Amino acid sequence: MTLQTGPILLATDLSARGDRALDRALQLTKELGTQLIVLHVMENHATTARLTTPVWRRLSTDHKALAERELAEDLSAADVPTEVVVVSGDPLTRIMETADSYGCSLIVTGIARDETLGRLLLGTTVEKLVRQARQPVLVVKNRPRRPYRDVLVATDFSAGARHALRAALQLVPNADLTLFHAYDVPFQSKHTPEDAVSRRFHQEAEQSAREFITGTPELAGLPQPKVVLEAGQPETVLSEYSFIHRSDLVVTGTHGRTGILRTAIGSVAERLLESLPSDVLIVRVHDED
After folding, report:
1. 3-state DSSP call for residue 178?
2. How far apart are CA 175 and CA 152, in angstroms?
3. Going by fewer Cβ within 10 Å, which terminus of the chain is more open, N or C?
4. Region of residue 277 (phi > 0: left; psi between -120 and 50: alpha; otherwise: beta)
5. Do 281 and 186 meet the contact criterion of CB atoms below 8 Å apart?
6. Which phi and psi angles does 228 have, rounded to 5°?
């Protein structure tokens, strides 16, 4: 699934942390010359509401009017077309319904700052959203001090990875791209020099990278992306690389039918959502549907 030129949907819980996602969504909307749809879902579940809703809103007798007013104030200085939608119901269902009904090309959301609460939210709405939504999902964690420049694309050189790369190119066409691939070197016999075997696996990864780049016509005419190949578990070596190089955005793909895949690229998606400080773009692949 790659990005088209439809509106961007921001799903917000009106928390202070969500302001980061709002600012990033506004910045991307302006860059892409599209419209921003801002959605707030009034949850029906009392327990969830107690955890995620500020006290001053829980005490309000008219949550919908209050949410609409606050969002209108937040968007009053926006220099892009915007529309506010406030509805009741299950957040996951309402987000997907709204994204589909408006023909949105991207869903933007944030997560809670508190680690425990963040895990709770990832385990419910955000994690389910990246499994089920038709659109790529951008999870914003950082303040958008600048447009995305250094973009790290996790790849296993599969068709799914190419979908993710294409989405990255459409979302941030002028960014500096790094293609990151982690390859596994299996246990070796004592009769085979480990360094020779490792070199062979590295050479095979280099060949796969060349074929992957050649087979992605969207890269034609663009600066050649940097390619990083490292031996090890992807969720470990990619995390280390992104921490050290402070990537603005990490992009990865995932399949929908089985949720986040238990393969290289899927493990990376899950780990990135939970642990990395960078923003993360998750691109769902529909091949299995």
Report:
1. strand
2. 10
3. C
4. alpha
5. no
6. -120, 125
User: Which residues have C-beta within 8 Å of that of residue 191, sequence separation ≥ 6?
Assistant: none
Query: 69-86, pLDDT tens digit by residue?
Result: 989 888 988 899 999 999
| Residue 176 bridge partners (DSSP) | 150
**Of 66, 98, 70, 76, which is closest to residue 85 (Cα–Cα)?**
98
CA 240, CA 246: separation in Å to the nearest integer?
10
Q: Are 32 and 5 in contact (CB under 8 A)?
A: yes
Structure-token match 């990151």, residue found: 180
User: With contact defined as beta carbons under 8 Å apart, do 141 and 118 qualify?
Assistant: no
The token duo for 43 is: 């949850």
Taking the C-alpha atoms of residue 281 and residue 46, their distance in angstroms, rounded to an integer, is 30
User: pTM for the whole thing?
Assistant: 0.83
**Residues 152-185, buried b or exposed e (16+ Cβ, 10 A)?**
bbbbbbbebbbbbbbbbbbbbeebebbbbbbbee
- Exposed, middle or buried by CB within 10 Å (0-12, 13-18, 19+), for 148? buried
Cβ atoms 44, 90 nearer than 8 A: yes
Q: Which amino acid type is present at position 236?
A: T
Please answer whether residues 260 and 288 qualify as being in contact, where contact means their C-beta atoms are separated by less than 8 angstroms. no
Residue 210 · residue 189 · CB < 8 Å: no
pLDDT tens string 123-173? 467 777 887 888 999 999 888 989 999 999 988 888 888 989 999 999 998
